Amino acid sequence: MKILILESERYAQAASGLIMEHILNDPSGVVGFATGTTTPPVHEALVRRFGETKTAASRLAVFNVDEYLGISPDDPRTCLSRMKSQLYEQIRPKELICFRSDAPDPEEDARRVLREINGAGGLRLQILGIGKDGHIGFNDPGTPWEFENVVVSFSPSSQLGKADFWGGVENVPKRGATLGIKGIMNARSLMLLAKGESKAEIIHAALEGPVTLNVPASVLQLHPAATVVLDRSAASRLQQPRDF
Ligand code: GLP
After folding, report:
1. pLDDT tens across 53-97, in order?
2. What is the extent of the structural domain holding 144?
3. Which ligand 1 atom sits closest to the C-alpha of 137?
4. Please, what is the Cα angle at 233 between 230 and 239, to 5 degrees?
5. Ligand 1 center–CA 239 separation, angstroms
6. Ligand 1 pocket, mutate which of 38, 82, 158 (most atoms under 8 A from CB)
7. How many domains does the structure of the chain reveal?
8. Where are the alpha helices (DSSP H) in 26-125?
9. 14 lies in some domain
10. DSSP letters along 190-205, please?
């Protein structure tokens, strides 16, 4: 696992540079993106980079790592709507693969997503955020690891964690679809993005603690090509010395 620690002022610029380098170096396969509060500035910087490299997106297949279920795809709070407004509408990728938030049969839809990813050459890079409890995508602590794609019911604590974004816990969708841990591990490369003091403890647990179901992001320790991009605050509890 490669760990890069950046000054927070340079974070979006540097992380977007790493993603772009990846995109330009390997033209085959799908790049998976993630929503949250960490990734939007990185997406903004990526839009500028695509502006400078006009052809890159015309060959690009993209995927959203997770999606809320039981809501209209036009709702601005879906992961798809947010990724469209942050990135896809500007760069216009060749192919967009995503879970349908209004799928009548979400399990079948999750299988369709997997077929489309495989048909497009598999995931070459999956970008991930991390929750304060160590979740990646919608794989909350305790989620089994054997699924490539999975439909999950959010636990009460997971719903509470999403309450602010949804304007109250009563508004949080009850279910979501996500690339499962096995699907994440199948990606040829992974890039986990984390910023800020509030992530310091979980980053320490995920990168330096035991690999455990209780900290889903700890699975990255087992991936052959995982890069973790941190700012100094998110890296502040790491015990082993790291290069800045
Ligand atoms: C949500 C998303 C995850 C993402 C996480 C990180 O839970 N479903 O895919 O990893 O947010 O959130 P943030 O970047 O806001 O800390």
Report:
1. 877 788 899 999 999 999 999 999 999 999 999 999 999 999 999
2. 2-231
3. 9
4. 80
5. 24
6. 38
7. 1
8. 39-52, 79-83, 89-91, 106-119
9. yes
10. EEEEE-SGGGHHHHHH
